[in-house]
């Protein structure tokens, strides 16, 4: 009887341990699952960190700062609101300097004059600088200038030549419309890409330097 009782209890012992074993397996499985999930979360965080240097690089190369406005005083007492070291500032300093010598090689670039893309239509915001140049010419009646138009090296050279001429003429017309003495503007000429220095394969930002309108002081 004693032997039979022992044999009958053995299966019961196994059965009693079975839930504990299963529970242990389930717990281990949950631990592995949670661990894997955490690792996946870490990878996601690493991805975000990898992207962050691009943001830092933008911060390290900020866009150009806002330009400082200053008063440019003319010899007739008129004061212009213009950018510091802009064309108005440079031109007036040149005209006021007795040692400066005018000539065909003396040029000053407009720095706030723009046209609608691919055309000779001057944008509205450019009127301020054109009006300033007109005021300078009125204040210095002996000054004579020539308008020059330039393009970058991209596109057809003949089209660039025509566009630069049309833009130079548009500036001449705008200055004369503002009641500038017509005899002070001796001409307007487009040079196309003849004097462009930046390669046509360069970025648009670099080539922008070659797309310009300038003033040559021929006499003062």
Give your account of this protein's structure.
- This protein is of the alpha+beta class.
- It folds into two domains: 1-62; 69-219, OmpA-like domain (60s Ribosomal Protein L30, Chain: A, 2-Layer Sandwich), CATH 3.30.1330.
- The protein has five helices and six strands, in the order αββαβαβαβαβ.
- The strands form two sheets. Strands 3-6-4-5 form a four-stranded mixed beta sheet, covered by helices on one side. It has a two-stranded antiparallel ribbon with strand order 1-2.
- The chain starts with a helix and ends with a strand.
- The model is unreliable at 1-15 and 34-64 (pLDDT under 50).
CATH topology of the largest domain: 60s Ribosomal Protein L30, Chain: A
**What is the CATH first-level class name of the largest domain?**
Alpha Beta
Largest sheet: 4 strands, mixed
The low-confidence runs, each spanning 5 or more residues with pLDDT under 50, are 1-15, 34-64
The CATH architecture of the largest domain is 2-Layer Sandwich
Q: What pattern of helices and strands is seen along the backbone?
A: HEEHEHEHEHE
Report the helical percentage: 40-55%
Number of H/I helices: 5
